[in-house]
Amino acid sequence: MSKAKSAPKAIHGSFTIERVFDAPPARVFKAFADPKSKAKWFAGPPGWVELQREMDFRVGGTEIAHGRFPDGHESKFVARYHEIVPGERIIYDYDMYARGHFMSISLATIELTPQGNKTAMRFTEQAVFIDGEDGLASRKEGTEFILGQLAANLPD
Question: pTM for this one?
Fold first, then answer.
Protein backbone atom coordinates (compact mmCIF):
# COMPACT_ATOMS: atom_id res chain seq x y z
CA MET A 1 0.00 0.00 0.00
CA SER A 2 1.49 3.35 -1.06
CA LYS A 3 1.39 6.38 1.16
CA ALA A 4 -0.65 9.28 -0.26
CA LYS A 5 1.13 12.60 -0.60
CA SER A 6 -0.23 15.06 1.94
CA ALA A 7 -1.20 18.61 1.04
CA PRO A 8 1.09 21.47 2.11
CA LYS A 9 0.18 22.96 5.47
CA ALA A 10 -1.91 26.12 5.51
CA ILE A 11 0.30 29.02 6.56
CA HIS A 12 -1.42 32.06 8.07
CA GLY A 13 -0.01 35.54 8.28
CA SER A 14 -0.75 39.23 8.14
CA PHE A 15 1.05 42.45 7.38
CA THR A 16 0.37 46.17 7.28
CA ILE A 17 1.93 48.71 4.94
CA GLU A 18 1.56 52.43 5.58
CA ARG A 19 2.20 55.03 2.90
CA VAL A 20 1.58 58.73 2.44
CA PHE A 21 0.54 59.80 -1.05
CA ASP A 22 0.99 63.31 -2.39
CA ALA A 23 -2.69 63.62 -3.30
CA PRO A 24 -6.01 64.07 -1.47
CA PRO A 25 -8.06 60.96 -0.54
CA ALA A 26 -10.47 61.40 -3.47
CA ARG A 27 -7.60 60.95 -5.97
CA VAL A 28 -6.13 57.96 -4.16
CA PHE A 29 -9.59 56.38 -3.90
CA LYS A 30 -10.15 56.96 -7.63
CA ALA A 31 -6.95 55.00 -8.34
CA PHE A 32 -8.61 51.96 -6.74
CA ALA A 33 -12.19 52.60 -7.94
CA ASP A 34 -11.80 53.60 -11.59
CA PRO A 35 -10.97 50.64 -13.89
CA LYS A 36 -8.84 52.73 -16.30
CA SER A 37 -6.89 54.31 -13.46
CA LYS A 38 -6.32 50.97 -11.72
CA ALA A 39 -5.14 49.26 -14.92
CA LYS A 40 -2.24 51.76 -15.08
CA TRP A 41 -0.70 50.61 -11.80
CA PHE A 42 -2.23 47.25 -10.77
CA ALA A 43 -0.04 45.10 -13.01
CA GLY A 44 3.14 43.10 -13.02
CA PRO A 45 6.67 44.32 -13.73
CA PRO A 46 7.93 45.38 -17.16
CA GLY A 47 7.29 42.61 -19.66
CA TRP A 48 4.13 41.41 -17.88
CA VAL A 49 1.34 40.89 -20.41
CA GLU A 50 -2.30 41.35 -19.45
CA LEU A 51 -4.50 38.41 -20.47
CA GLN A 52 -7.76 39.36 -18.74
CA ARG A 53 -8.99 42.35 -16.74
CA GLU A 54 -12.50 42.79 -15.37
CA MET A 55 -13.66 45.16 -12.66
CA ASP A 56 -17.09 45.67 -11.11
CA PHE A 57 -16.29 48.11 -8.30
CA ARG A 58 -19.31 47.84 -6.00
CA VAL A 59 -20.18 45.89 -2.86
CA GLY A 60 -20.57 42.30 -4.07
CA GLY A 61 -18.75 43.11 -7.30
CA THR A 62 -15.71 41.22 -8.53
CA GLU A 63 -12.37 41.99 -10.08
CA ILE A 64 -10.03 39.81 -12.13
CA ALA A 65 -6.47 40.62 -13.15
CA HIS A 66 -4.79 37.80 -15.08
CA GLY A 67 -1.42 38.10 -16.75
CA ARG A 68 1.76 36.42 -17.94
CA PHE A 69 5.26 37.25 -16.71
CA PRO A 70 8.26 37.44 -19.05
CA ASP A 71 9.37 33.93 -17.98
CA GLY A 72 6.01 32.56 -19.19
CA HIS A 73 4.31 31.82 -15.88
CA GLU A 74 0.88 33.28 -15.23
CA SER A 75 -0.79 34.81 -12.19
CA LYS A 76 -4.46 35.47 -11.59
CA PHE A 77 -6.06 37.71 -8.95
CA VAL A 78 -9.81 37.17 -8.34
CA ALA A 79 -11.42 39.55 -5.82
CA ARG A 80 -14.82 40.31 -4.32
CA TYR A 81 -15.64 43.65 -2.69
CA HIS A 82 -17.29 43.61 0.75
CA GLU A 83 -17.27 47.24 1.86
CA ILE A 84 -16.69 50.47 -0.03
CA VAL A 85 -16.75 53.84 1.74
CA PRO A 86 -15.83 56.46 -0.89
CA GLY A 87 -12.62 58.28 -0.02
CA GLU A 88 -12.17 56.30 3.21
CA ARG A 89 -12.13 52.50 3.08
CA ILE A 90 -12.22 49.45 0.81
CA ILE A 91 -12.47 45.88 2.10
CA TYR A 92 -12.21 42.90 -0.24
CA ASP A 93 -11.11 39.30 -0.30
CA TYR A 94 -9.14 37.72 -3.09
CA ASP A 95 -7.91 34.37 -4.34
CA MET A 96 -4.47 34.22 -5.91
CA TYR A 97 -3.43 31.69 -8.54
CA ALA A 98 0.05 31.10 -9.96
CA ARG A 99 1.12 28.68 -12.66
CA GLY A 100 -2.46 27.42 -12.84
CA HIS A 101 -2.67 26.51 -9.14
CA PHE A 102 -4.66 28.06 -6.30
CA MET A 103 -2.08 29.44 -3.89
CA SER A 104 -3.78 31.69 -1.33
CA ILE A 105 -6.80 33.56 -0.11
CA SER A 106 -6.59 36.97 1.53
CA LEU A 107 -8.70 39.60 3.22
CA ALA A 108 -7.46 43.12 2.48
CA THR A 109 -8.44 46.44 4.05
CA ILE A 110 -7.43 49.81 2.62
CA GLU A 111 -7.94 52.80 4.92
CA LEU A 112 -7.44 56.37 3.66
CA THR A 113 -7.02 59.34 6.01
CA PRO A 114 -6.53 62.96 4.93
CA GLN A 115 -3.32 64.67 6.00
CA GLY A 116 -3.62 68.20 4.68
CA ASN A 117 -3.29 67.91 0.87
CA LYS A 118 -1.96 64.35 1.23
CA THR A 119 -3.41 60.95 2.08
CA ALA A 120 -2.18 58.49 4.67
CA MET A 121 -3.01 54.97 3.56
CA ARG A 122 -2.96 51.86 5.71
CA PHE A 123 -3.11 48.58 3.78
CA THR A 124 -3.66 45.49 5.93
CA GLU A 125 -3.74 41.96 4.55
CA GLN A 126 -4.56 38.71 6.34
CA ALA A 127 -3.66 35.67 4.25
CA VAL A 128 -3.75 31.90 4.17
CA PHE A 129 -1.12 30.39 1.88
CA ILE A 130 -1.93 26.86 0.77
CA ASP A 131 0.41 26.12 -2.12
CA GLY A 132 3.51 25.44 -0.07
CA GLU A 133 5.50 27.89 -2.19
CA ASP A 134 4.31 31.43 -1.58
CA GLY A 135 4.43 33.11 1.79
CA LEU A 136 4.07 36.33 3.70
CA ALA A 137 7.45 37.84 2.80
CA SER A 138 6.94 37.50 -0.97
CA ARG A 139 3.32 38.72 -0.74
CA LYS A 140 4.36 41.82 1.21
CA GLU A 141 7.18 42.47 -1.27
CA GLY A 142 4.74 42.19 -4.19
CA THR A 143 2.24 44.49 -2.49
CA GLU A 144 4.95 47.08 -1.82
CA PHE A 145 5.90 46.91 -5.52
CA ILE A 146 2.26 47.43 -6.59
CA LEU A 147 1.80 50.35 -4.16
CA GLY A 148 4.95 51.94 -5.57
CA GLN A 149 3.36 51.77 -9.01
CA LEU A 150 0.22 53.36 -7.54
CA ALA A 151 2.24 56.29 -6.20
CA ALA A 152 3.71 56.85 -9.67
CA ASN A 153 0.30 56.63 -11.42
CA LEU A 154 -2.19 58.61 -9.32
CA PRO A 155 -5.07 59.88 -11.48
CA ASP A 156 -5.77 63.59 -11.95
Answer: 0.92
